[in-house]
Amino acid sequence: MNYRPLFTATLFVSLSPLYAEDPASVSDAGRWSKERVQSERPAVVTPPGHTTAAKPGAAPSDALVFFDGTNLSKWKGKGKDGSDAPQWLVKDGHFEVKRGTGTVQTRDQVEGDCQWHIEWCTPAEVKGNSQGRGNSGVFIGGYPEVQVLDSFQNDTYPDGQASSLYKKSVALVNASRGPGQWQTYDIICIREKKGADGKVIQPGSITVLHNGIVTQFAVQEGGKQASGGLQLQDHGNPVRYRNIWARKLVVPTVAAPGK
Asked: Rounded distance, CA 236 to CA 51, Å?
């Protein structure tokens, strides 16, 4: 497999007040024209916690928010009455797996390359071991499962621990926090790109950051679909989730070697 850095996003906007008023004042010895400085400026995105009004873990300004702590209106599952209303429990700003009710998934999909942010927490009271301890999973349309598991001082097979691509790719490191502590996944999904002749010029890939640490880097698994939603697994353990959002990315295509 070829592993290449694929997730430097470039967005295009007009001048922002956050930059100097005169584009020429930031040119680099004529290397950047006034027009290029203005047209190729990265978009300004307010990061989480940027303002005092922002709560910890708030989504960035350009995010598509799928769970804000209040309800599961943007999700579907298996309702007791035959509807598609999810049966997982919502309380105190998070939602929790309700054993036996099945998976839940987002009603909407995200087109193209994207970043998903998911916060999750395994039970503070430790029960079971290996795959029987704080087990759930994150499925993004067209990609392998990103395993959710209490992997803190809990041995299991390597491609089944937290942030592994389940039975596909072992995590680079174990970055797990202890039971009952909130953890984060930031997942970068790069979709397969084809040229005008229909041949693949860039394979799909997935990169995972677990608690801010890279645990999967540009692994070429999945990404053949043009879009995908998010699905969370009911594995019978009361795993919690909160603050789930996605960002669309505009990522330059990087052709495979020899193309």
From this structure: 38
Q: Which residue has the tokens 């759930």?
A: 136
Amino acid at 43: A
Over the stretch 154-185, which tens digit does the pLDDT of each residue have?
A: 888 889 999 999 999 999 999 999 999 999 99
Number of domains composing the chain: 1
Asked if the structure places residue 24 within a domain, the reply is: no
For residue 104, what is the enclosing H or E element? strand 104-106
Contact 144, 204 (CB under 8 A): no
Structural domain range at position 87: 32-248
Q: Which two tokens stand for residue 194?
A: 């084809």
The 8-class DSSP code of residue 225 comes to: S
Q: Confirm whether 254 is domain-assigned.
A: no
Give the separation between CA 154 and CA 143, rounded to whole angstroms.
Answer: 26
| Eight-class DSSP state of 77 | -
Does 45 fall in a domain? yes
Q: What are residue 59's phi and psi, to 5 degrees?
A: -70, 155
> Rounded CA gap, 149 and 162, in Å?
5
Say if residue 6's pLDDT is above 50. no
Q: CB neighbours (10 Å) of residue 83?
A: 10
Pseudo-torsion of CA 147, 152, 156, 161, nearest 10°?
Answer: 20
| 193 in a structural domain | yes
Q: What is the pTM of this model?
A: 0.80
User: What CATH number corresponds to the domain at position 200?
Assistant: 2.60.120.560
User: What distance in Å separates the CA atoms of residue 38 and residue 129, rounded to the nearest whole number?
Assistant: 56
Tokens at residue 171, please?
Answer: 């995590």
